[in-house]
Known about the structure:
mainly alpha, 0% strand, globular
Amino acid sequence: MQQNIPLAVAIQTVGSFCFAMAAHLQDKAVVGEVHENSEKSRLKARDLLASMKNPRWLLGLILMGASLACQITALFFAPVSVVQPVGLLALPWSMIIQARAERHKIPKRMITAMCVTVLATFGFTAIVSANAGHEADLATWAVFLGALVVYVVAGTFGRLGVVGPKRWRSLFWASGGAMFYGLEAALVRALIQYADQHDWARDPIFWLIVLCLIAGSMAAGWMVQQGYATGAAELVVASMTITSPVVAVLFGILVLGEGSRHTSVVTALIMLLAMVAIGGVIMISWLHYVLIEHSSHYFKESYKNCTTLERSPSESSDPSPAQHSDADEAAMTAAALHAAAHRHADYLRKTQGS
């Protein structure tokens, strides 16, 4: 099939939005089942099954399918080293979706980081597109060897998601899933090339690659759900938008021969823009983390202060105070939460301008 890189980029951009929306919906569904997972333990099968009954999770699954369909369609029109980096746009989409859901503005510094990420991504895509090589003969041994390496590394990250430090478990799970997603995109492109060069319907190698693709997709889906259960959706999306394109581009260049026309200057520019885009994603993640941490701390302090104010001085000085009834306690708690929420909203309005 003839290449049409602008069409492929447009399709993958739509796919990146579908992925970000799917991540937002499925994170809400999974977190609703595991509640406060302070131990950062992995998602149990019964929790996942319960999540799957949630309409949000099912809608997220449909959007994830739409994202996959966009990715596969785009790979028919462009190399994987062009298509997959466009997935970096999922993180800016995720930030916008989260801001809309919580009805607050995005801080100016985060908007700047988003713009840098988008511009670097499209610069990277433009240079790779202009220097895309012709399809080379596919070395099947290299495909299977590359897939095996990704399986081993991703499996190691999955193990770290179980036994590693609690604060990093979500990142480990998401990174392992992202490696499988990057491999998935590369294997789809490998299947397209192999079908063009061979009588694929009767060729067992083609179906072995399909089996590798299916196994990797199932593992990726499981690991991403674990990431949602042990951390924030934005962290999962951030990890996937960094790791998945790196794996796919490396596979495309080293295994599928997509870098055959890259000169040293082109390679240097590609690496520079890739580092800028990845740096933008890291900056977005860091700014989001700082905002959430400060906001959460301020809310807790506001609630504590409001709870103290709700109790009258006469009650605290009474030598024989009567026990508050459950209704009284609930009323004071509700009033404190209401006051704290107002102070928290004021705090957000002040910080969003910076």
